[in-house]
Specification:
The protein is mostly helical and 128 residues long. Belongs to the CPA3 antiporters (TC 2.A.63) subunit B family.
């Protein structure tokens, strides 16, 4: 096993919650500014990589991440259908904001799971 730098481990441990909170901020306020679900999810998935750098012996269930990703996809489809049926041609800014924020959160979580699965597969299965 390679020796890891204590400075790297300590600094990444400090940056970990800051990066995750920044990803949440981008996700939630993505309907007002450029950004949103994908960008916030990509930032949050970088915390998964940081977590692996800090502790490579981490136990991660690939099966659980895949199940969560599939459920999120179904939730995204369900919210779109509900929004289309509920709006029925009217424009309501409060409903639109709720819809955009909820879609950003679902998409960010799906991107987080998807990119984490990709990283997990590359590190553990493709490196052999």
């Amino acid at each position: 096993m390679r020796s890891r730098s204590e400075l790297l481990i300590k600094s990444l441990g400090i940056l970990y919650p800051i990066i995750f909170l920044f990803g949440i901020y981008i996700t939630i306020y993505g309907h007002n500014t450029p950004g949103g679900g994908f960008q916030g999810g990509a930032i949050m998935s970088s915390t998964f990589i940081i977590q692996y750098i800090i502790n490579p012996e981490i136990e991660i269930s690939l099966w659980k991440l895949q199940k969560i990703e599939k459920v999120l996809f179904l939730c995204i489809l369900l919210i779109v259908v509900i929004f289309i049926l509920y709006m029925n041609g009217t424009t309501n800014t409060l409903i639109n904001r709720i819809y955009l924020v909820s879609m950003n959160i679902l998409i960010a979580t799906k991107v987080y799971c998807g990119l984490s699965i990709i990283f997990f597969r590359f590190v553990l299965f493709e490196s052999r």
